[in-house]
Amino acid sequence: MGGSGMRGTGEKTGYTAAGGKSRPRKSLELVQGRTNMLTGEDRSLLKMYIEKGTSFAEMARLAGTGEQRIARRVRRIAGRLIDGLYVNCVRRPGKLNIEELGVSRDYFLTGLPLKSIAAKRGLTYHRARKTLKRVRRILGENLQRTCPAGDPLRTDSYQI
What we know:
Blueprint (H helix, E strand, L loop, with lengths): L22 H12 L5 H11 L5 H8 L3 H17 L1 H6 L7 H13 L3 H8 L3 H22 L14
């Protein structure tokens, strides 16, 4: 892993040489603020990693799984919190109905595939796909007003 930090640990300090906060540090703060949107095991994993400083190895030992699997999961969860697509859905009161908010939560925040979302929500795969397509269209319309350049649904990639 690149970046500043302790050699061999894979951890980043989050500070630039000039003493200011770097992108990873800002991302960490963003993830901390949005952790409460998660439930269950995802929330627990992030809290253990961010707030308590638990290593991936220790979390893997507690979960009875591999260290790389835990590391990938934590990074994916953090990435979904950072990209903020679900947050943008919540910020559109009146634009999305309850079904659309549920599908967007499952897809953008939890990372479930459409097939699983359809089964969980009692929808057909086709209905879940159409719902997600409508959510994306609404997000695209709203984000284009606030993002003057580039693809409105893409964000900078950050690491925690």
